[in-house]
Automatic annotation (TrEMBL):
Protein name: RIBOSOMAL_L9 domain-containing protein
The Ribosomal protein L9 domain, residue ranges: 38-81
Source taxonomy: Eukaryota, Metazoa, Ecdysozoa, Nematoda, Chromadorea
Annotated InterPro entries: Ribosomal_bL9_N
Domain of life: Eukaryota
Pfam families in alphabetical order: Ribosomal_L9_N
Protein source organism: Meloidogyne hapla
Length: 229
């Protein structure tokens, strides 16, 4: 190895001598620790791992292997199946002053404000005409929408319409009154019903080609789970 450049002198460029381009490798202790587990959604039963639809923490190597074999999908920061099955409500923020039409971008933006990140192209509205506003009479209304995972899972989600004003940073539905969970009676009040996730190991392409996700889900029995219906 060449001698180090004395203090106060300009370092010679590495191109002067190939030995100047050599570096001593040092190990950083923080990179010697194993990577933390990754939360995954199993898309089918996996021996010694878990059952279909189960959301579990897997080692990086196993998660990567199952993902490449299309036996599992990466779970988003929140537990999609939990939100769908437990009927937890996501506040959906809309303008109290400007006109709007409910769309996947509004839903994705509102969800991201609560740490729930889903690509816009993976979010679908429920069947029927999209809601438009401002419509103060609809404030606090529960709505149904859907998220797809790896083009194999459709997860039903719930949102609550909340009108907000950017200049006042207020909403008409007080924060302490926002329902965290929806009962079956509350779903019925807004013309909704309990729904479960839909899974098809062969993908969702046939649904995309035939009809909207919201239309397809509206036709399903509320207790149906898999694509074998």
């Amino acid at each position: 190895m060449p001698e180090r450049t004395p203090d106060g002198l300009m370092q010679r460029p590495p191109t002067d001598h190939q030995d100047f381009a050599k570096y001593e490798a040092k190990e950083d202790p923080q990179y010697l620790e194993p990577a933390p587990p990754i939360k995954m959604i199993l898309l089918e039963d996996v021996d010694d791992v878990g059952d279909k639809y189960e959301i579990i923490d897997l080692s990086v190597n196993l998660a990567h292997k199952l993902y490449l074999n299309k036996k599992a999908a990466y779970a988003s920061p929140f537990d999609l199946e939990y939100y769908g099955r437990k009927k937890q409500i996501v506040p959906i923020y809309v303008s109290i002053r400007n006109e709007w039409t409910l769309n996947p971008l509004i839903l994705a933006t509102s969800m991201e404000q609560h740490g729930i990140r889903i690509p816009v192209n993976c979010i679908y509205l429920a069947d029927g005409e999209p809601m438009k506003g401002p419509a103060l009479k609809e404030d606090g209304r529960l709505i149904r929408f859907y998220a797809t995972i790896e083009d194999k899972l459709i997860v039903p989600l719930l949102g609550r319409i909340l009108h907000v004003s950017l200049d006042e940073d207020t909403n008409l539905f007080p924060e302490d009154q926002q329902l965290k969970m929806a009962s079956n009676a509350q779903l019925l009040q807004f013309g909704l019903r309990p729904e479960t996730i839909y899974f098809n190991p062969n993908g969702l392409q046939q649904i995309y080609e035939k009809e909207e996700i919201g239309t397809f889900m509206a036709k399903r029995p509320s207790n149906a789970i898999t694509g074998a219906e």
